[in-house]
Design a protein that fits this description.
Blueprint lengths: L6 H33 L6 H13 L14 H14 L4 H26 L1 H14 L3 H4 L5 H22 L2 H12 L9 H17 L3 H17 L2 H9 L3 H5 L2 H28 L2 H6 L3 H26 L3 H9 L2 H24 L5 H6 L4 H14 L1 H23 L10 H18 L12 H24 L4 H17 L1 H5 L11 H5 L6 H6 L1 H4 L3 H11 L7 E4 L4 H6 L18 H17 L4 E4 L17 E3 L5 E4 L4 H16 L29 H9 L1 H10 E7 L2 E6 L1
Helix pairs in contact: 1-5, 2-3, 3-4, 3-11, 4-5, 4-7, 5-22, 7-8, 7-22, 8-10, 9-10, 9-21, 13-17, 20-21, 20-22, 21-22, 30-32, 31-32
């Protein structure tokens, strides 16, 4: 006879089934709609760049030699897998991304249920499923944040299960998963920082050095093993040493060095204790110590005087002599060594110069802060849940301090909430790191916020269960659920105001935008953009062997056209924040490569790039009409072009408003600039415009204008 099923097992199975059904309805349906929107929304920007790079690498190109990619190793690997299986399109990478997301959501549900209970797991997983696929921040799907978040969730869940079951394999897995997000995007380090901070702090508070060494070692072992994943790309590209120069690898190297130093120091201290060195030294008379210490500088002065009298060296030699004395040189060498290791970390981190620092020069915090707070408001549900958990945990901790309670809460949930809180706070803070506050930057804080929400739900459920009078807790829970449901409505019906600019969507466009509902209605228009039309034209008027070049940050044209570029840097989106001298070098290299292998078509996207207050650097300058839209292309006449260049650089460099009366006194040629909407002083832009001259001349001398698609101008080789 089959074994009887106990009532407890039956209740457990029924409860689990009900939880899964509720989660699939509340979270699964929006997630499915979000994926449908993403799969039917061609990505003109990041997604196209990643797919192009993957296709180029699969065709035999070498990274850093034949092609320069903005994608990090794991992002490239995910796209390479998708393109290798499904072809030169976005579908494959988006399928890979969806599988990773589904796996992480299932893992989140399992881990939250183990630690915080069924209600918390349903709540947290539902919030994550909705907001990680919400059109407001999900962009076009194939973005690096969407790839890295599943690994961040997996790392956090693995650690929760380690604390719950005390099985070491979960800690090793946590380290393995925690490494991966960085190789999608540097902000993925938030989960690494959170985990290490928690491990170190928790063990120091309980004064368990042995446990600290064990847990740190297990985490580091998994972390090091995780290098195998990005290492696949470096090995494939024949650059295995490149992996060792990345920040996580350098962190492991520096960590090992400092661990050895600490072990040596600990060995010296332990050895000194065993031979009772301190006790023996204390037996020496203090006057002998004083006399010896005084004798050292006296003998040093005498020796310097004798050497100077005999050899006559100068003051610089004296300083060198002092620095070479062992008791001086040893500490100095140690300081220099520590400084060199810190310098290695900074160099590997990329904090010195580059994309972020150059971008900050172009925009101030006063412009960025309102935008970030508008996104915080739009994402109020996961933020409020996470904030409630953090404040509740902090209130309980402070209450214990005030009451001078020596015992800490025995439940594991009151300890793990701090891990999740640190992670969420870091994700909230990291969106301030870049002045380019794009919508996908807010995805990570929704994931960490959703997991952190498990604590406040668990706390409520615990109070509800233990309270004799359940009605107040039931009423409070229902009120909170209704309030949060109301706050989430704009995610579904669309935003009234743009989180980016604050503009009124209803007033400007006649309806709400960037919600699940509006995005479904916009699918047909998303598939009819100007960049899609120009890509279709190129594909039908060229062969597979033909090459093209797209100037500006619309790399999706390559994917739509199914064509590659003959240059290593196939797309460019940082022209307005790149220092003019460096920009000039990039242009010169680009022109040299094009002269050796001229593309059949060139597209000037004429896209306005960050910081969005600069005129586009055009390949063939255009005039402007009274409504500030672009007019006719400039005649290809040397005298006309020279006059235009002179006046346009003056306009850029001197904050010269063409609508002022003084403008009419200049040559008649300037009427073509009369309605240009760019009047802000930008001295660097004038230099960048000059740096563009070789590329402009190459295009104007060797290509003809085929047509204009929206703002995009298509050129064909003569």
């Amino acid at each position: 006879m089959p074994a009887a099923v106990s009532p407890r097992t039956r209740r457990f199975s029924v409860g689990l089934l009900i939880s899964i059904i509720i989660m699939l309805i509340l979270g699964g349906i929006p997630f499915g709609i979000g994926k449908y929107i993403e799969f039917n929304s061609p990505g003109p920007f990041d997604s196209g760049a990643f797919v192009y790079s993957a296709k180029h690498l699969l065709g035999g190109a070498k990274l850093g030699v034949d092609t320069d990619s903005s994608a990090r190793p794991n992002t490239l690997l995910a796209n390479v897998i998708g393109v290798a299986i499904f072809g030169f399109n976005e579908t494959g990478p988006k399928i890979v991304q969806m599988i990773l997301q589904l796996g992480s959501l299932a893992f989140m549900f399992y881990a939250l249920r183990k630690v915080f209970g069924s209600v918390a797991s349903v709540t947290g997983t539902t919030v994550a499923a909705i907001y990680l696929s919400a059109p407001l921040i999900a962009k076009f799907g194939n973005v690096k944040e969407q790839f890295m978040i599943p690994f961040m969730i997996a790392a956090a869940c693995s650690f929760l299960l380690y604390e719950h079951a005390q099985k070491r394999r979960w800690l090793v897995l946590s380290g393995f998963f925690a490494l991966q997000p960085y190789y999608f995007k540097p902000t993925g380090l938030s989960i690494v920082i959170a985990l290490l901070t928690f491990i170190i702090t928790a063990n120091l508070l309980r004064k368990s050095l042995k446990q600290l060494i064990t847990e740190t070692g297990l985490f580091a072992a998994g972390f090091a093993a995780g290098l195998l994943v990005p290492g696949i790309l470096y090995l494939w590209q024949g650059n295995p040493t490149g992996l060792l120069r990345t920040l996580p690898a350098v962190m492991l190297q520096v960590g090992c060095v400092f661990a050895v130093l600490i072990l040596v120091l600990a060995a010296i201290i332990i050895g000194a204790k065993r031979i009772h060195l301190i006790t023996q030294l204390q037996q020496v008379s203090k006057w002998i110590w004083i006399a010896g210490l005084c004798l050292i500088p006296v003998m040093l002065i005498i020796s310097i005087a004798i050497i100077k009298a005999e050899e006559g060296f100068d003051n610089d030699d004296i300083a060198s002599y002092i620095r070479n004395i062992p008791m001086v040189s040893a500490p100095a060498k140690l300081v220099r060594f520590v400084d060199s290791q810190v310098a290695r970390l900074l160099a590997a981190s990329g904090l010195k110069g580059g994309y972020v620092s150059n971008s900050w020069k172009a925009i101030g915090l006063s412009k960025l802060a309102p935008q970030i707070f508008r996104y915080y408001k739009a994402l109020s549900v996961p933020i409020l849940l996470a904030l409630a958990s953090t404040l509740t945990a902090a209130a309980i901790w402070l209450s214990g301090l005030i009451r001078k309670t020596k015992t800490t809460p025995a439940d594991i949930q009151s300890k793990l909430v701090w891990l999740l809180a640190i992670w969420w706070i870091l994700d909230m803070a990291f969106v301030w790191g870049s002045p380019r506050s794009y919508e996908q930057y807010y995805l990570p804080l929704c994931a960490s916020g959703a997991m952190l929400a498990g604590y406040i739900v668990w706390k409520w459920q615990k109070r509800y269960t233990l309270s004799p009078n359940k009605m107040p807790w039931l009423a409070g829970g229902l009120a909170a659920a209704i309030t949060l449901s109301c706050l989430s409505i704009p995610i579904f019906i669309g935003q009234r105001y743009s989180p980016d600019t604050g503009a009124d969507y209803v007033k400007n466009y006649g309806g709400r935008r960037r919600g699940f509902g509006p995005s479904l209605k916009e699918l047909s228009s998303r598939q009819k953009g100007a960049w899609i039309a120009v890509g279709d034209y190129i594909r039908t008027h060229s062969n597979k062997e033909d090459t093209i070049y797209v100037w500006g940050w619309v790399p999706g044209i390559y994917v739509q056209a199914q064509r590659l570029a003959p240059v290593s840097r196939a797309f460019y989106g940082d022209m307005h924040v790149t220092p003019p001298r460096k920009f000039a070098g990039t242009i010169d290299q680009l022109v040299r490569q094009m002269k050796g292998n001229s593309p059949k078509f060139i597209v000037d996207t004429r896209k306005i790039h960050f910081p969005n207050d600069r005129p586009p650097l055009e390949l063939w300058p255009h005039t402007y009409s009274k409504n500030k839209s672009s007019g006719l292309p400039l005649p290809n006449d040397p005298a006309t072009v020279a006059q235009y260049d002179l006046l346009y650089k003056k306009l850029l460099a001197e904050q010269f408003d063409p609508r002022q009366k003084e403008f009419s006194r200049l040559p008649a040629m300037t009427c073509w600039l009369q309605y240009a909407p760019w009047t802000k002083a930008m001295p660097d832009e004038a230099e960048r415009y000059e740096a563009m001259k070789p590329l402009r001349e190459f295009v104007m001398n060797n290509y003809r204008i085929v047509g204009q698609y929206g703002n995009h101008v298509l050129f064909a080789r003569k």
